[in-house]
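Practice record 12: protein with adenosine-5'-triphosphate.
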Amino acid sequence: MLGASRRSVCTAAAGSRRRAAAGVASTVSGDSAVTSSPDPPRSVVNGEPGVPRLQKRLLSVLAAPKLIGTDNVVSLKLREGSLVGRRYESSAAAVDSSDTPPAEKYEYQAEVNRLMDLIVHSLYSNKEVFLRELVSNASDALDKLRYLSVTDSDLLKDGPELDIRIQTDKDNGTITIIDTGIGMTRQELVDSLGTIASSGTAKFLKALKESQETSVDSNLIGQFGVGFYSAFLVSDKVVVSTKSPKSDKQYVWESEAESNSYTIREETDTEKLIPRGTRLTLYLKRDDKGFAHPERIQKLVKNYSQFVSFPIYTWQEKGYTKEVEVDDPAEAKIEAGDETKTEVKKKTKTVVEKYWDWELTNETQPIWLRNPREVSTDEYNAFYKNTFNEYMDPLASSHFTTEGEVEFRSILYVPATKKDDIPDRKTKNIRLYIKRVFISDDFDGELFPRYLSFVKGVVDSNDLPLNVSREILQESRVVSI
Ligand SMILES: Nc1ncnc2c1ncn2[C@@H]1O[C@H](COP(=O)(O)OP(=O)(O)OP(=O)(O)O)[C@@H](O)[C@H]1O
């Protein structure tokens, strides 16, 4: 699965990235919505006719091609940000009388800059992992929303279905990934997409440091995954438009591959507003535009994201046959009395009518609910690698069900790599589900004795209440059993 192309860390890091100067006025361009589709998304979603009103609105956002003008970012003045790196706060509000709130410019945290340098200039050949990473983020965002909605059902109120949609535009070389998950507030955007928020990425950087000049950086990208930033393996520009239920406003995060900064602005185009979740648009690099082919994306979803437990729809061209009338060139002569009339006969022929529609592309039944006799070793291994971001097959796995006092289903794996030894980071090796809803993987040493903490796996039980709190979980008899 891993590409073997190599490049030294130093060479990559010394790439010629533009450095944004503090206090310089700049212009930020808006993102354009994506569609190559001749028709707007149709009303057949999930095979069911009719789409809820808000979902329709979401779909129309997808279908409407629109380029908004540039936003003004006027004289920016430097201010020291929190942990997340420097922030250039715009003083535009004071001088700009237009209704459009100005974009604010932020600098990436130093580690992110390093990572971006590496990603952007990497010769890593297995770039397609970007889709796995972004779909996995979308799935996490849906998991978070579903979990929170157990105790706060308002979160789902009026909202669209919990799903992931991927639309490609091969003419313009863009891919749009939309989820209806938890979304991000402005602060969460800064905290998540400007810093090293992910443990996977932190591991990556640590391994990178250890490998130093050993020219293995390309492989490291595949081994650890670089999360959200992997979008820049294939993109010149990435635009994230996101709406959290915690905020009234929708925000747009935007950055270019060759930049060490990003901007955040409020979404003001009403046609682009989404009820909830995140829409991520990738503007593909010239050599990577091939990823914007609908069939290619469909294949990648099947390969990498088959175990995501939310429906993933891809936008596909379809055809149906219909009968149409055609003129018959052979004329029929009709004799009536002395006159001979010539009439053109009507005939019908079958033609294929093309249209675009969403197609369910993954299998959504969790693998642990299947009969172990029907699951192949390859499927167990693929699930392990997808779920735990591992690049090697496990040494062993065990899929079992307990019945009686406590019922649960579980798949446990013995990894082939040595235990993660990053201090200060909790292992997130056991994922607990209750009735198929992901609850937590934050069980450092609680679900397993410490000496077994290298074991990875999933546990799903119907015997715990869904709205269980973490404290109750810790004391729960069911959990201890
Ligand atoms: N589609 C999304 N919806 C909501 N939040 C998102 C989305 N994509 C990314 N994020 C936020 O950005 C953070 C960073 O994402 P990134 O992929 O870099 O790491 P991660 O997913 O946290 O870590 P890991 O890859 O180790 O699981 C996420 O933790 C999440 O808070």
